[in-house]
């Protein structure tokens, strides 16, 4: 029987393998901890983080009552999309890591999708 950490790593490796085939695009990567959610726009060709947003940002902390819920995740998604658009990034590939695509991850992706093209 595989435990949850092993299943997480299997999902993460599967996502990264599929993303590496579309390597000409910038990557929108997320990381979800127990209290916060983080998003980064990464250029893998140059190994540079172009923009980042999280629930730790001051403007998101003022609006969100809780650290990491669906509402604050959607604010992070909107924030990262605006920051990416300012630097001229309009097409990204979504890297959900090993997280399942529902709840907080889906809210972040839907909010980012308003300004970015996946």
TrEMBL record:
This is one of the proteins that bind and probably mediate the attachment of the 5S RNA into the large ribosomal subunit, where it forms part of the central protuberance. CDD domains: Ribosomal_L18_L5e. This is Large ribosomal subunit protein uL18. Part of the 50S ribosomal subunit; part of the 5S rRNA/L5/L18/L25 subcomplex. Contacts the 5S and 23S rRNAs. Belongs to the universal ribosomal protein uL18 family. Pfam families: Ribosomal_L18p. GO terms for cellular component: ribosome. It comes from the Bacteria. The keyword Ribonucleoprotein applies. It comes from Candidatus Trichorickettsia mobilis. PANTHER family: 39S RIBOSOMAL PROTEIN L18, MITOCHONDRIAL, LARGE RIBOSOMAL SUBUNIT PROTEIN UL18M. Keywords: Ribonucleoprotein, Ribosomal protein, RNA-binding, rRNA-binding.
